[in-house]
Design a protein that fits this description.
- With 414 residues, this protein is of the alpha/beta class.
- Helices cover 36% and strands 22% of the residues.
- The chain has 12 helices and 14 strands.
- Bound molecules: zinc ion (ZN).
Length: 414
């Protein structure tokens, strides 16, 4: 029984209508009407493929295809069902529809795995509603306390708990949905690359080795606000000029690192922000990403030295007011081998590469062995209505996923 790529395409396109905006983007934000429609649609597909379907108390959608030995830990496969505002049709949705398609072929051909397989569509991976990415998987992995969940509110001040109630979810049962790591055998996720590498190389798929760490710094530079006309250039302590040097130098360092790390200053605020006043204060962020944690620690030292340098050069003071470090995570070597063998089985050789974006698989790696497969992002575009992948590349990716799922679901032990 073969993967029906036309059916996958049809289903992706149908799911994409749920949250379609007038500007042709897709806004399927967690707990919205569009998200509910998407969940209802995927529920039907899961049921048609022979799965029993439930929503956990957080709103993760889970379909279970039974194995012959219910005592064995289950395999979980999937991705997220929410999108960013004005997003595309594939980010997240593809990983869910692909997993359902694999199970559909199993059901049609009468294939029974030894261990159960659960297909999941997680909630709030993008983090746009409550400002916390991978909320659904963080919940599953037991990373969030009930107090933390109770404290989450959307931009209008509405509590997560109220959203759960409005969606018929039982927030009082939240503790019951957390996965026991002994119940879970492995987690697999197929996802669009969201980068240029595969498309540039003309390759359809890749096996993910690591998911990058992200190191965010919130920095304030204090200079001295003064008259922009009467203050001689050699008497100024201009916070923005100092910040500009930091921006340029961290950019140069990342550029010269030849791909080992990236750095972004994505937010910058000047005070007082007037045309005739020398900037007295600048607050900005530096985000760095790398697949190895030692590289991130090294870049942090570079940032600290850079701040000392501009203090000396421009007579300003600098302070790192906050730092959030989310370490890089290596995915399971065993699952990487399984995915390589699966690719082999379908006569493909695929490269291994890190993921430069965060994913549910990164979170799930704290409780189980995880693997990820990428399919091409045409022109490297993602989080945009222009998001696209060639359907024959999608088919190749799903074939590898299917083979890996079968192999893991037939295993009697680790
Ligand atoms: Zn995604």
């Amino acid at each position: 029984m073969e993967i029906d790529i036309n059916l996958v395409k049809e289903r992706i396109e149908k799911l994409d209508t749920m949250g379609k905006t007038p500007s042709s983007g897709t806004s399927r934000l967690s707990y919205s009407e569009a998200w509910r429609q998407g969940q209802a649609f995927v529920t039907l597909l899961m049921k048609e493929a022979g799965m029993t379907v439930e929503r956990d108390p957080m709103g993760n959608l889970i379909g279970t295809y039974p194995g012959t030995n219910s005592n064995l830990p289950y395999l979980m496969v999937g991705s997220h069902l929410d999108t960013v505002p004005e997003g595309g049709s594939l980010d997240g949705a593809l990983g869910v529809i692909a997993a359902v398609e694999c199970i559909r072929t199993w059901q049609v051909s009468g294939f029974r795995p030894v261990r159960a397989v659960k297909v999941i569509g997680t909630v709030e991976e993008e983090g746009n509603v409550f400002g916390l990415g991978c909320l659904g998987s963080r919940y599953l992995a037991g990373e969030l306390t009930l107090e933390k969940l109770a404290s989450l509110t959307d931009k209008q001040g509405k509590k997560l708990i109220e959203h759960l109630k409005d969606n018929g979810l039982e927030s009082e049962l939240l503790e019951s949905g957390i996965i026991k790591s002994t119940d879970l055998f492995a987690f697999l996720e197929l996802h669009v690359e969201q980068g240029y590498e595969l498309d540039l190389a003309g390759e359809p798929c890749a096996i993910v080795t690591d998911i990058v760490g992200i190191d965010r710094h919130w920095i304030t530079i204090h200079g001295h606000a003064n008259h922009a006309g009467t203050t001689r250039m050699d008497r100024r302590r201009d916070a923005l000029v100092a910040a500009a040097m930091v921006v340029q130098e961290i950019y140069n360092a990342a550029y010269k690192s030849q791909g080992s790390f990236v750095a972004t200053v994505g937010s910058l605020k000047i005070t007082p922000g007037a045309t005739n006043v020398i900037p007295g204060k600048v607050e900005f962020t530096i985000e760095t990403r790398a697949a190895q944690n030692d590289i991130l620690h090294g870049v942090h030292e570079v940032i600290v030295k850079l701040l000392q340098k501009v203090e000396g050069k421009y007579g300003v003071t600098t302070i790192v007011t906050d730092r959030k470090f989310a370490p890089a995570v290596s995915l399971s070597g065993k699952i990487i081998d399984t995915l390589c063998n699966a690719a082999n089985d379908v006569n493909m050789v695929v490269r291994k590469m890190p993921s430069w974006a965060g994913h549910d698989a990164k979170i799930m790696a704290s409780i189980t062995q995880c693997g990820m497969l990428f399919v091409t992002s045409v022109n490297g575009i993602s989080h945009s209505p222009e998001e696209a992948t060639r359907w024959d590349d999608v088919e190749k990716g799903i074939n590898i996923l299917n083979q890996a799922m079968k192999s893991l679901a037939l295993k009697q032990n680790s």
